[in-house]
């Protein structure tokens, strides 16, 4: 944010004025920046939480392995969003990012169903927490508080 302000960028201007392909159009820069920053905060908080609990439960390999995998998936959303900017994937406004994220979580559910014929409780709770954190990040990013916080950075 300080670099954008130092460059004289109007934070209320359309995101397309930045000239970065794949970000889309129609949204003010502050909204996109706020959503990105709060989403990243939520991802880091989810990653740290899963990592901490997985370390505490390392003597239970079934839970530990699932939580470590969910921690890795929870932090991957930013990378998937960057990959979505490649022209063949349609940009961050396309369904690519969400589809890949859901597919990664779905693969874990599929593994559970295939190997144990039920979804492991750690998988179920982990996915619920990942979704809740993503929703919380989106809500905070879209709020007046979230935008004010980002403007103050």
Task: Describe the model.
This protein is mainly alpha-helical and 153 residues long. The chain has one domain (31-143). It is 69% helix and 0% strand. The radius of gyration is 18 Å and the shape is elongated. The model has no long low-confidence stretch (mean pLDDT 87).
What does the largest sheet look like? none
The run of helices and strands is: HHHHHHH
Structural class: mainly alpha
Looking at the structure, what is the overall shape?
A: elongated
Which whole number gives the mean pLDDT? 87
Helix content: 55-70%
What is the count of β-strands?
0
- Beta content comes to under 5%
| Low-pLDDT segments, ≥5 res | none
Number of helices: 7
Whole-number tally of structural domains: 1
Radius of gyration: 18 Å
Alpha-carbon distance between the two ends: 6 Å
Write the layout of secondary structure elements.
Layout: H1 2-6, H2 29-56, H3 61-74, H4 77-83, H5 96-116, H6 121-142, H7 144-151
Helix pairs in contact: 2-3, 2-6, 2-7, 3-5, 3-6, 4-5, 6-7
Name some characteristics of this structure:
153 residues; mainly alpha; 0% strand
Précis, in short:
The chain is mostly helical and 153 residues long. The protein has one domain (31-143).
